[in-house]
What we know:
With 390 residues, the protein is mainly β. It is 10% helix and 28% strand. It is flat and about 95 Å long.
Amino acid sequence: MESTPILSGYGSYGTANPGYAPIAEGSPAMFAPPVCDFHGPSAPPASMFDTVPGYEGTVAGVEGGYLPPPMPSYPAPQPQPGPAQSNWNIPSITEDTAREAFSQYASSKYCYSSAPVKDGVITNMEAYNTYRYRLETFNESRTTEWSQQPYNGQPVDAYTQSPPGPWDIPAKAPTFFQDDKQVIKVPNTSSVKNCHTCLGMGRTPCKECAGVGNKICWVCNGAGNRSSGDQCHHCQGRARVNCRHCHGQGSRECETCKGKRQLLVFINLKVIWTNNLDDYIVEQSSGLHVVNLSKVSGQEMFRDAQYMVYPVMGFPDSNVVRAAERLVREHQARFSQASRILQQRQTIELIPVTKVTYKWKGDSHIYFVYGNEFKVSADNYPATCCCTVM
């Protein structure tokens, strides 16, 4: 059988390749044409985007750095001292509460016997209540990036007038102290450009067949015949079959412009609201690890929320006072440069911690009850019954 090669060369890929047609039934065997070396740019070129006043640092596909807010045109409100608090103590837990918490703790452990709970005798209870100071700073930050989408006749407003500045665009803030974000198309930045991926053709060479439109027959491995000498039934002896991805056309619709050939390019403004939180827990000498206290709540003794808080004053524990001064100073320095502080909140919780000493089988043991949830820590529980499975 005489082999007739198809014409090589990937022609105008905006339409089916004019140099060849999809394989038809009864066609003679053929060879693959040379593969064209077309590689559209993986990212839009910088020249694709216009220079927009106020947005000079904006790039495509990458969020620019956070844009510092402008200086306020009016004096910022000054922080005021928080409300006074006279009672900084809470009553200790009762023996019944301590025993009930211990019972629930033991029953939650698969390998723990309940004997120490039932037969143990509480000999001492010591309160080591401690404080947690928490500062929250709710701020708004803004960043920009060039974006694109297939052009379907959307309004084009670039150069009609100057775009508003990044911080002049209104955005509705969420409830204070709740993270959120919003993406806003910047007005007067939209323009139409030829697609950089397909060079404005609407189609790109098929990657599966390298733009050829057909592939080697997988049944006969391109021989056209079976090992028995019979003609391959899959390719009818042609040695190649149409590419199923592009249906023999050698090209596919451009994924970037969706075949529209043009893109609408514009600047997106991303507004991000973040609640930044820092805690300080006063060390206590009970022996309970401080990390345990991060998992429980305490009784709120003090709360102060305003635009900018003033470090707490008049607190009986000097460690809390120093921590409040440090965190307020750090937050205002950290979040007032590249973002806009909308609200701050500081709270003080009193976390109950009780060290319980009990006697069981003649020996003394301890456990801790802590937090409003009455969590228990008993590192050396005396009656475990786990067996190692060999």
